[in-house]
Amino acid sequence: MVLVLLSLLDELGTILPQISNVIQDLKQRVENYHHFLRLNLYNKHIAEDHSETATHCLYYLLCSSDSKQKTSALQFSESPCCGKPHKMDCRECNERSHLERYISHLVSQVPESVSGVPIAVRIEKVFEKMDKYSGHLIRSKLQKKIFDSFLSRLDGKKALVVLDFKMKFLYRVFRESQSAFFGQRGNSNLGIVFIFKPDPNSEDIHIEYLDFFCNEDTTQDWFFVSSALQIANRQFKERHPSMEEEFLITDNGGCFHSSGFILWCQYSYSLTKIKILEYAFFEAGEGKSVCDQHFKRWDDKIAKQIASGKNVSNPKEVSEALKGLSGHCIQIF
Amino acid sequence: MDRTKQGSPNAIPRLHKISHLLYNYDSNNRLTGIKFMEQSLGIDTFSGTTMSATQLDALWDKKKTVDTCSSSFDPLITKMAEYDPLQISPQGNANDSPLTPQFSSFIKRENKKLKEAKKKTC
Q1: 3-state SS assignment for residue A248
Q2: Could you give the ipTM of this predicted complex?
């Protein structure tokens, strides 16, 4: 994204050699803004709640663009998005609009005789991508807040359940190179992580992992997910009879974010005696760290098994390799 | 279950935009509706569309009859869920024994039975 913008600025410099000094400064500013986007925007600028700075206020940032336009017209009055005033301004957050305005001004000086896709169009696309990335960070902040709220609401009756598919797994044999990997090949593994507090008076949070390893049918669809969750919930209920309610977290994969699975969840209570209270779809790369940590341990165990001279070439050997992972169990379909 | 028929009718409006769902229940643990929320306005001031239980039931029936050949209430699934519950201690047990070949042979056997039953009905 930023590399493209930098190369476009170089191109602009070759078309307009008289502004090469300005271009160098601009490139530095673009790099600084990139650094800000990657490190500071999420960690230091976006608040988890209302903020007096409009560009930091989570509620303002999440409202529709129509409402934002209304707000910018009345910048110092009450915002229709969060109902509270925004009196402050952030120089670093406003750098994006300053950069865009400045670069547009320079691009307007490019003569029309230059062939190819207009540089203005390409620069506009880069800024669109930057906005989408900022949007991803803002939504991630909200989801962090949702995750924390789920954790804070755990008591002796509620559990937080995170579902995610592991990247497809290929069998391996000792001292033989692994066959070429393609996305569609391999075996599926659905990881289900239960996070709960068995004792409501204690601060201890317990975690249980359940893996559903598909040996033959590796279809990742809502039917498989709902079946696996049904089995997992029933067994979880048997182990912890006091559990009655659940919060679900998944990504936006087609097997999760589909009408089939959403509608199935309403029957969870009649099938498993566990009610699903809330269901949150998280951004790519967010919210499922618990599953990813578990999958890392999964991979380490498999690698250890191979290194010790054994094969992992069928479900039985997979389950043998994974023996010893605490709080973990694997079921093979 | 015909897994080739994955596409769903556009049952839930703006499904791709929805990021959070609230399942509402009455005192008898019966679902009264689902609130579908898009990612806006934070978690304190949710706003979104709600579908009632009857609407959802109608959608589910449609899902069963139009989209898929059978439903998630497949007897096979129920049997699988009842099959040999796992024992995992809350603290984690290093000796957790996994269910292996018996489980898959059980599924294969049940799949065969289902296929034969389907053939007979056809």
Answers
A1: strand
A2: 0.79
> In the block, which residue shows the tokens 């500071």?
A40
Put simply, the answer to whether B60 touches A238 (Cβ < 8 Å) is no
Q: Which CATH architecture has domain A153-332?
A: 2-Layer Sandwich (3.30)
As annotated, the residues of chain A forming the CATH 3.30.420.10 domain(s) are 153-332
Q: 3-state DSSP: chain A helix, strand, coil percent, rounded to 5?
A: 50, 15, 35
pTM across the whole model: 0.74
pLDDT at B44 over 80: no
In 3-state terms, chain B is what percent helix, strand and coil (to 5)? Answer: 40, 20, 45
Identify the residue with better confidence: B76 or A163.
A163
Q: How confident is the model at residue B80 (pLDDT cuts 50, 70, 90)?
A: very low
Which residues of chain B make contact with A238, given a CB cutoff of 8 A? 85
- To 10 degrees, the CA torsion angle through B5, B10, B11, B17? 120
Distance in angstroms (rounded) separating the CA atoms of residues A21 and A39: 28
Flag whether residue A254 sits within 8 Å of chain B, measured between CB atoms.
Answer: yes
Instruction: Please indicate if any CB of chain B lies within 8 Å of the CB of A315.
Output: yes
Q: How many CB atoms lie within 10 A of CB A109?
A: 11
B4 touches chain A (CB under 8 A): no
Euclidean distance between CA atoms A273 and A306, whole angstroms? 41
Which of A274, A106, A149, A231 is closest to B25 using CA atoms?
Answer: A274
